[in-house]
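Table S7 (text form). Paired inputs.
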Amino acid sequence: YKLSNSGDIINGLLDHLDQRTPISPQIPRKTLYVGHSMGALAAINAAVQRPDQVAGLVLVAPAITPLKDEKTQERLQKRRLSSSSKGGSSATTSSSMAKRRVSFVWNVMMTANRVYFKAALALLADVFDIFIKPFLAFTLRRLVRDRPFWIRGLSMAYHDPEKLTNATVFQYQRPVLVRDWDLGLLNFVRARVAPERFVKTVVDGLRVMGKSFKREQDQQIDRDENTALEKLKYLCNEKNVPLMLIHGNEDRLVPMENSKQIAERIPTAKLVQYENCGHVPHEEVPAQFLDSLEAFKSDIITPIDNK
């Protein structure tokens, strides 16, 4: 249920579909990933796994907060620099040795603090699983039977409530017909807070702390650890992946400003804004959305020469 696993799931599905409908080996497969809201993070995770096979990215009202991501990335970079500072030449002055010792102690303290914090969250999540989750699952089952519950929730996503038809509400209700959907939803929420169980979190944390005592560490950037914005910059700036951002200017769930900030940080990005549209432009203005998608696709995908 971890969001970081979403890339594996998406690309695994693509591989499965490729096996069922194989294409000519002379034609390299290129994938156009489209993600909406939090699904934009899943699309980015999938694309960053196979950057050379990405035709383009379309992010619709992406749940990405550039300013928050930049602060998080800055902390990650400081942590990496702190780790790398422990290595180096032995021919150093007493002053630099003292600075390295201070840096070493500080890095160990920060690592221990992160481990304790994650362990505490994991313990709370385990308690949630045992004592609270059954009650919440029961409550969810009762709520989804109430049509006004869906209308209240979906009205936040739609700018024009007249477009929220009975057929649309029913389509949102359909997934709850799947057995154990409620447990899946709660497990997903739990994974966002604490991906692992308490014992595994502690064991992994001790392993990380042990690494912090080594003089040398692997300094290769782990893109799974990077923020969504940093992954997006890598794809667009280093791998030249075309990016289109689509956002309704009346979105009350994910502000339009987020997409504007992403576009400012990635100059090659194309920002498409829809007037009088909320969080779900593919539902509120489907014809306009498809036109934008087709135009973008025709710009980035070269037609196959059948001669």
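Next pair, protein 2 of 2.
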Amino acid sequence: FETGDASGKIQSDPLQELQEFKTCLKREFSDETRCQQLVTSLESNKTSIRNVNFRGHEIDDNAAVAIGSALKMFPSLVSLDLSENQIGDEGAIAVFDAIRTHPSLNKINVSKNKITSKGVAGISQALKTGKSVSDVFIGENPIGDEGVQSLASAMLASPLMKSLDLSATQLTLTGVGSLCEVLNTHSGLKWLSLACNNLKNEGVSQLMKGIKSNKTLETLILTNNHFGDRGAVEIGELLKANSALKTLDLSHNEIADLGGSMLAEGWKKHLSGRTITLTDNHLGSEAAGALADVFKDIADLQIIDLSNNHIQSKGAWALGQLCQNKESIASLDLSGNKIQYHGAKALAKSLKHAPGLKLLSLNGNCIGEKGIKSLQKRTQSGQTVHHENQKQADEPEENVPSGKCVIF
């Protein structure tokens, strides 16, 4: 629990009863009467509780019903986290029915429970008629296309929605079609996760058509959807037409040099982005060079994660050049990329001319003791370089451009 005083300052666990309530729910989560008694005991503090976190407390439907009945006692509540529990449809319906009439609760997290499309009906009703709900996290629940369609229908009637997590919800092309209708017309959605739905190329292609004309979506998470280079080409085309996206996570999608180069072509027109994540793909030095050449022109770029690819020393050199004199880049993760000594040496030379770079991660590469010493020698004040778990090189090092480092 968290409360806010008159000044708005957050204070954690202000009463012993709050902790007792959490302990009870973990020990006696099916005892609705006992739970309700403890909820009632908190009434004296009802005007100041703002955030409630019951993540991973083995809460079942009975306990969720008790929590739902208690929400009206806390008019200042803005956030409720019930993730990683055992809540099914009955509990979800009770909680969201209470949220529907709550004056201030805007963020609800019920991810990693047992909610199906039946339980989503309660969520949809809360969205249609609720007063404040704007952020819904329902990932890792088996709601399927029927549940997604229900949510999509509710969102069309709810301009308040800003964040929606549908990761690992067994979404298929049918559900994507429903979302596209929303994305074409919804004026408020800023954050969307469709991670771990195995959308493949067909699903991503359909999704890109829905996002193409959207002007508000800033964060899109498509981790682990297995769309490969063909899907990356579709995303590259989207980037040419849509300038709103600021954060894009395309991790675990089997994207290789062709897809990486097509993404770079898209970013040439897009020229916007704060966080770009392409970890655990198959990007090589060619894609790294193409991306580095484009990233230098993205003024607000702050975080780049290319960990666990195959960019090797030549790609590391190109990214080192990118960081030089580009103050916006604060973090560069090149862990697990088979970078060897000359790649580390090139990055070390870049550190001196990278005033904004605060974190460089090179864990799990092959830079050796010489590479580590070179980095340590060039690391500037305020910079952190990670180089743990180095491995033996299993292939010859790519040629790295020699001579004086070029500064963009």
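The radius of gyration is 24 Å.
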